Amino acid sequence: MTYDKRSDGRKFDELRPMEAKVGVIARADGSAMFKIGKTVAYAAVYGPRALHPSHMRNPETGILRCNYNMMSFSGSGERVRPGPSRRSKEIGLVTEKALLPVMDISGFPNTVVDVFIELLQTDAGTRCAGITAAALALADAGFPMRDLVAAVSVGKVGDKLVVDLSKEEEDYEEGATDMPLAILPRTGEVTLLQMDGNISKDELKELVENAKKAARKINEVQIKALKDKYGVN
Amino acid sequence: MEKLNIKDKDLAVPGEELAEGMEYLPSSGTYREGNKIIAAQLGIISLNGNVIKIIPLSGRYIPRVGDVVIGRVTNVGFNNWFVDIGYAYEAVLPLKEASSEYIDVERGGSLSKYYDFGDYIMCGISKVSRSMATDVSMRGPGLKKLKGGKIIRIAPSKVPRLIGKQGSMINLIKDKTGCRISVGQNGWVWIQAEDPKAEMIATHVIEEINKKAHNPGLTDEITNLLSKETQK
């Protein structure tokens, strides 16, 4: 059987409807909300601030510390259970590594920049939504950044290459491959690439190109959110 | 080949291509890649001739030598004080920088009779090491303990706007409300007046500036707000 129509009626290279807002958390130094389909991520940035435990301090540069968390009422109740886990720890770590290449925090030695990502509602692509929101929050906090970071998951559902998988597609019974990517929209550099499933070399190349196109669309939403905060446009 | 994609006072977003061509020069908040100039910070563009600079709209205070800031004494040592100036780590106020008069430690007695826990002081940044360890000093014109009044905090990036050109904005508020106001580069503002109502008006106006610092025509708006508030 072939997968010839997406379960939510989207085109194969179409992203779910997106919404972004900057400055949503009053007491954070920077914050943002990013919504893609039914996935909702909030990111809050605090810092540069004093780092504890102090053995983690680096006298050469500040460090970035990301915390990923699915809120206890999020998810559909199956497979992934919300809350602190091995999985959330790992996603926090890859988020950090996806964001660090654009950041320059060497001006704040011995300090930490804390990024808290909270997912209120999850329907696949949570780490991507988290990274996209975190990049916005960091920009809002006024940090020097080479570029924003936009993240999207691409993959293969049945025999079709698709962009921005939903939970239903991830669980497609005849097999699905899910590949989250974080991309610098301007240059197309990749800062995160993970994969769950099987894919051929040619398909992988095509998927990366598709992800770059999608990242540029996400970037447009990001830019609009930042400009909206200051009433431009 | 030379191309400018932006105007002066536009909002720049990280990664935005601001200009093309070697004629333009990148300044703070921007970088050059190939022959393009790219924004590396969220902020307002300041175009000065062919030099492109971004003035950030947000961000915490980063100490710089020569800044005059308002700090809060958080700890009193045997020969120094620790002062919270809004950066990640506290600044140190050494004994010899604390006063222009001689302080005799040998005689005993706590240093807290000079500056005590919770005191707010107007101080100057005298030293910032490579690891951002900061020293402050009380030796300089206008540097003193702030007695009475209240402290409010605004974004450090908005301090230039609150002060205005040659102090135009802050003098406007001082004249209209009759308050004594001191502004630290770290965004801490000290307000004091005999009349608590005047303090409230000044607080309200400064918070308004903090919110609307990026708007053009801010001075007129604040003038209107001040005359409306003071007539109440």
Question: Can you give keywords for this protein?
Answer:
heterodimer; A: 233 residues; alpha+beta; Ribosomal Protein S5, domain 2; 5-stranded mixed β-sheet; 4-stranded antiparallel β-sheet; 27% helix; 30% strand; B: 232 residues; OB fold (Dihydrolipoamide Acetyltransferase, E2P); Ribosomal Protein S8, Chain: A, domain 1; 6-stranded antiparallel β-sheet; 17 strands; 33% strand; flat
Brief sketch in words of this structure:
The complex is a heterodimer of chains A (about 230) and B (about 230). Chain A is an alpha+beta fold. Helix content of chain A is about 25%, strand content about 30%.
Description:
The longest helix of chain A is centred in the last third of the chain and has 29 residues, at 201-229. With 233 residues, chain A is of the alpha+beta class. Chain A has helices at 86-99, 126-140, 167-170, 201-229, and strands spanning 18-22, 30-36, 39-50, 63-70, 111-121, 150-157, 160-163, 176-184, 189-193. In chain A, α1 (86-99) crosses α2 and α2 runs parallel beside α4. The mean pLDDT of chain A is 95. Helix content of chain A is 27%, strand content 30%. Chain B is α+β, with helices and mostly antiparallel strands. Chain B has 3 domains: 3-56, OB fold (Dihydrolipoamide Acetyltransferase, E2P); 68-146, Nucleic acid-binding proteins (OB fold (Dihydrolipoamide Acetyltransferase, E2P), Beta Barrel); 150-230, 2-Layer Sandwich (Ribosomal Protein S8, Chain: A, domain 1), CATH 3.30.1370. The radius of gyration of chain B is 21 Å and the shape is flat. Classes of the chains: A alpha+beta (233), B alpha+beta (232). Chains A and B meet through β3 and α4 of A and loops of B.
